[in-house]
Write a structure and sequence with these properties.
The protein is α/β, with parallel strands linked by helices. 41% of the residues lie in helices and 17% in strands.
Length: 370
């Protein structure tokens, strides 16, 4: 049976929402008896119809992961840890559980740990250092056999050194994903953010763009590395960066920096730019929606390059040129490296770091104006 494009898109949206919720429930991020976001909130978050949300919820209910209570809402019915109390377990600390990234990374980690009979205890800091401290203490008290950590506010030196040193003292191996801290020496598995950014900037320049702006996040290492690659490529090609054409944001000031007023101001400042390099696809698509609402055509008036290679909307017309994030493979590599460290005495002192090679998905978001 052949589906038309509209029904196929709705099917894809339902699967995406279902996988997101299922992963959060099975990993213990959403716990038993916690309330699920409302149908309206899920509609807004995923940009889908109410029917698509209900299809996803129906399947979650069929899987006995949620229960619906008339007049009250939808609640988690699955209890994480029912079958894991006496098994070896690792800790996984994530700064976010974004719908477009976390499920695939978690599945990569879980696929390796499942083979070894090791369970995963997940914690999400929401990029708050106090929460990271709380979860590190919890993992110290529950005798985890290893830790996978996505750094919190990773562009800054970390204040939780004492806790990390206690893990090292107990010979509990730690591996970081996406980033690492400048004042802590641990192995990491990451994208080659600086090199990816350099390559995306080179592609923009190769297509004739000379006035290039950017949107970067300053409170994590990925944002700083992506700015560094952009800056170096511009310098190598004798092109100047106009500081007015760079928008910086952090977790704390996100709402303000992407408010209508702030974006309007940035559109005005970048009116002479022919291209933008943007921190990730989520931000890029948010900016594209705003710019096109102001009559700016992508890529005819403004070319866009980005990171992560995630399609967040069903806009068939525009496909971003984007650095490919390995997601599932990154989770798998981090888990395998942690296993090696756990099985080899003194393994954490060897170099188990890895950076994925640069890979670019060519879309139609860059116009050749050379």
């Amino acid at each position: 049976m052949i589906q038309d494009n509209d029904s196929l898109n709705e099917s894809l949206k339902y699967v995406k929402l279902y996988n997101w919720a299922r992963t959060l429930i099975l990993s213990g991020v959403l716990k038993k008896n916690e309330k699920m976001p409302s149908e309206h909130m899920l509609q807004k978050k995923f940009g889908v119809s109410r029917q698509t949300v209900r299809t996803a919820l129906n399947r979650l209910e069929e899987d006995s992961l949620i229960r619906r209570q008339r007049g009250s809402g939808t609640y988690i019915s699955y209890e994480y840890g029912d079958n894991t109390e006496n098994t070896a377990h690792i800790g996984l600390i994530m700064s976010y559980f974004a719908d477009y990234m976390f499920p695939q990374i978690y599945e990569g980690i879980e696929s390796v740990m499942r083979e070894k009979g090791i369970s995963i205890d997940v914690a999400v800091t929401k990029n708050k250092l106090n929460d990271e401290s709380m979860y590190l203490e919890r993992f110290l008290n529950t005798d985890v056999t290893g830790l996978i950590v996505e750094g919190t506010r990773s562009s800054f030196p970390n204040p939780n050194m004492k806790l990390y040193k206690e893990f090292k003292k107990r010979n509990v191996p730690i591996i970081f994903i996406h980033n690492h801290y400048s004042n802590l020496k641990f192995a990491s598995v990451e994208m080659a953010d600086e090199r990816c950014s350099h390559e995306l900037t080179r592609i923009l320049i190769e297509n004739g763009h000379r006035r290039i702006g950017g949107i970067f996040k300053y409170d994590d290492m990925q944002g700083m590395e992506r700015y560094k690659g952009f800056m170096e490529c511009m310098s190598e090609n004798d092109l100047k960066i106009n500081d007015e054409c760079i928008k910086w944001y952090s977790t704390k000031d996100f709402d303000y920096q992407f408010s209508r007023k702030s974006l309007s101001d940035f559109v005005r400042k970048t009116s002479e730019c022919t291209a933008l390099l943007v921190y990730n696809d989520e931000i890029a698509e948010k900016y594209v929606e705003f710019a096109e609402g102001r009559g700016i055509k992508i890529p005819e008036d403004l070319s866009i390059a980005s990171f992560d290679n995630i399609s967040l909307s069903e806009n068939a017309r525009l496909k971003l040129t984007s650095a490919i994030h390995p997601k599932y493979e990154l989770g798998k590599r981090a888990a395998r490296n942690l296993i090696y460290m756990m099985e080899n005495s003194g393994g954490e002192f060897n170099n188990y770091s890895y950076k994925f090679p640069v890979s670019i998905s060519k879309g139609n978001s860059i116009l050749d104006i050379s």
